[in-house]
Amino acid sequence: MENTSSSPMLRFSLWAVQVLLAAMFLMSGFMKTTMPIETLSAMMPWTGSVPMALVRFIGISELLGGIGVLLPSLLRIKPRLSI
Description:
The chain is mainly alpha-helical. The chain is 69% helix and 0% strand. It contains 3 helices and no strands. The radius of gyration is 17 Å and the shape is elongated. The termini are close together.
């Protein structure tokens, strides 16, 4: 059941925020999963003091989070999750 009372501007704003949030998650996750730890620790010092497997796990989780922000609406599966 879709809410038809929301304004087009509100819908556009929510989509814009969702796309930006997904882009941030995807970029950060991509960096953490593909870059060498030495290069990554120069940009994010905490990555040099934790196990590499944890950094990769966080990166994969961020990738999945970025995808999960957009998929409900794009696939029309539970679109109420992302308005």
